[in-house]
Write a structure and sequence with these properties.
Thiol Ester Dehydrase, Chain A, alpha+beta, globular, 5-stranded antiparallel β-sheet, 135 residues
Length: 135
């Protein structure tokens, strides 16, 4: 269940054929891509897309990702990815996710990803204040 005390971004779309196996079930790796789409959508909804973050001299490098698969999604099913910031520190942050069916809100997958902020030179850096304000 997403939190009620912070901003939660939602993005709804159809499962594409290329994301499924021969049985029409979403391949497990596709959910990690859905997490990434959730993060990108989160940033856009907060007014600072990830491309502008990179242009400002930083990357958010994934240092850990976890997914708990509860029920499969299938080809052409409408799903909703929910994303929020679970934890914000000076140099790292954790996003949490919930993927549900768009019609019944049945939980399909939950997970999180941890990120560290680095410069384009690969040095660990403080997350810019505009993004830290989201936490």
């Amino acid at each position: 269940m997403p939190p009620t005390d912070r901003f939660v971004a939602e993005n709804t779309f159809h499962v594409r054929y290329a994301e499924t196996d021969a049985m029409g079930i979403v391949h497990h790796a596709s959910y990690i891509v859905y997490f990434e789409e959730g993060r990108s959508n989160y940033a856009r909804q907060r007014g600072h897309n990830y491309a502008s973050f990179e242009r400002s001299g930083f990357y958010l490098t994934v240092i850990e990702v976890s997914a708990r698969y509860i029920r499969p999604a299938r080809y052409d099913q409408r799903i909703t990815v929910r994303c929020w910031i679970e934890e914000m520190k000076s140099r790292s942050l954790t996003f949490s996710y919930e993927i549900v069916t768009a019609d019944t809100q049945e939980i399909l997958v939950t997970g999180f990803s941890k990120h560290i902020c680095i410069t384009h030179d690969g040095q660990v850096a403080r997350i810019p204040d505009t993004w830290r304000a989201w936490g």
